[in-house]
Amino acid sequence: MPALYVVATPIGNLEDITLRAIRTLKQVKLIAAEDTRETRKLLATYDIQTRVTSYHEHNKLTKLEYILNQLQSGDVALVSDAGTPGISDPGYELIVAASQRNIPVIPVPGPSVLITALVVSGLPTGSFTYLGFLPHKSSERRMFLETVCQEQRTLVFFESPHRLHNTLQDMLEIFGDRRISVCRELTKLHEEIFRGTISEAIQHFVLPRGEFTLVVAGMQPAKKENEITGEIERRLATLRQTGINAREAISRLAEETGISRRKLYQTWIKLNKE
Q1: Does 109 or 236 have the greater pLDDT score?
Q2: Taking residues 35-52, what's their average pLDDT?
Q3: How far is CA 16 from CA 32, 51, 86, 109, 187, in A?
């Protein structure tokens, strides 16, 4: 039975393509491409002669039936401009429609700018939230950032160069000066990976160019401070009675218990008064 192959292609460097992807693109009947001009550069590099049709944001609904009909008589490969199809680009509707018609949807995994940026960011990767492109309008963008301000997982966004400065300014105001990794033109000639704070990123990218992926630290949970207990008071009193000075006693207990020096000092003063 014919299948829809979801094929990941390079995000920049054309050498970042799998052998399976090349074989699949050669064997399918048709390639549905987000930008046929970009895809043809890749196909020419690997001498792939398969017929190509456009499938992009502006024709994805009108072209849907045509591609589904093509799937009745042969395999079709879905590719985007770069990376894995369906991540902030056309593909979702076709994948859903094929699944609903019981057409096999087969992934051919490979490059993804989302994962590439995340793993080189230097920020926690155990749990993250991908949020795509932020709204274009400032008011909507700020409102959206407010909704994810409390998120503790690492946040990943895509952004265009002409909106980068305003987006970073909004993040600074709403998130505070968190750690951020700004990845530009990943795997391409002018690749740049910036790591620092949001305010440092604003100063660094004065005239931004290229494609950007922003990886932002999640909100750090407030540390729960240990409380003074009766046992801690008794230990402070015992240390005081031995003649040890306040500084040494407080330093010792702060290291052992994790209680702040401020709280321990207040308790020491209270014991003196008593």
Answers
A1: 109
A2: 96
A3: 20, 22, 19, 12, 9
C-alpha 133/C-alpha 15 separation (Å) is 27
Residue 139, pLDDT > 80, answer yes
Residue with tokens 């790591």: 195
Q: Which CATH number fits domain 4-111: 3.60.10.10, 3.90.550.10, 2.60.120.260, 3.40.1010.10?
A: 3.40.1010.10
Six-digit token pair at 136? Answer: 């274009």
Indicate the domain borders of the chain.
4-111, 114-216, 230-273
Instruction: Report, at the CATH architecture level, how domain 114-216 is classified.
Output: 2-Layer Sandwich (3.30)
Under DSSP, the state recorded for 221 is: P
| Dihedral angle over CA of 156, 162, 164, 170, nearest 10 | -110
Give the gyration radius of the chain's Cα atoms. 28
Query: Could you tell me which of 259, 202, 197, 193 has the C-alpha nearest to residue 229?
Result: 259
User: Which whole-number Å values give the CA distances from 170 to 88, 194, 199, 240, in the listed order?
Assistant: 22, 18, 11, 52
Whole-number pLDDT of residue 274: 65
Nearest C-alpha neighbor of 257 from the set 222, 237, 233: 233
